[in-house]
Amino acid sequence: MPQPSAFPVMEHMTVKQIRAYLGKKRSIIVPLGVIEQHGYHLPLNTDALIAAGVGRQIGKRTGLLVAPVMYESFSGGGLPGTINISPATMSLVVSDLLVSLVSQGFRNFYLFLCHGGSENARALDNALQLLLRNNPAFARVMIALLPIWKLGSRDVGWGKALKEGDWHAGWLETSMVMALAPELVRMEDLELDPPALLKLQIEHPDNYQRAEKIVNDPFVIPRMTQKPEIRVGVMGYPERASAATGRKVIADIVKSAAAHIRRLEKKADGRYKEIPFTPEPLILK
Predict the structure, then answer these.
(1) What is the pLDDT of residues 23-35, one digit of tens each?
(2) Helix (H) or strand (E) holding 161
(3) N or C: which end of the chain has fewer CB within 10 A?
């Protein structure tokens, strides 16, 4: 049975190999995923599978080390199999992961984010900014957050899917899993939530939530939960998926990510310089 390539996948390498790598390069790709509902036709590890599979292809293209994929994250979903950790805990785990890698000598981090939950993304962005602000060990460290939906051509992958409301477990993600791990796709089990509910979620990915208040007053904080009538958890058009589409999308994302990383690698000199800054709108108005 063929053994997996030792490079550039960190978990398959030895201490000696990591030490040799750090003697030449200080950059690393960190894939971020989640374990969550993806309908009846896709596995729970869809986002993590894409993060690891595509992240490794980006690593091979750029010659950069790829860290183990992170599975722990906040989904917001509540269907069986979904594992939620709070956004705050997720951000602490990522921060500790980076602190550990910085202590070993890594200096340029490319966080390859493949889970698009809004609460999760906000917490991660805040955590990374605070890490750079408060931890002196990061004085010469560059952190780049690369969401998968911001990579690639506008008319091929996410750019095309988002225009159609294909947010989650639709043709895009299904096609990518067909290309990466076809044995895990169960199209014979494909089901969708009722048309009206599916349409609502296609219109906005956070429409899977419902808000409740004990008193409907603007000062009262709402309790947000998943709509109980959601039974499948698909937001999009998975029936349009194909392995050929998946391969095309992945190639486009890898090309885009690799080009961006190469540009950053050429410019990253470990020195922070002031850039234009525009504060967020006042919250006191």
Answers:
(1) 999 999 999 999 9
(2) helix 158-163
(3) N
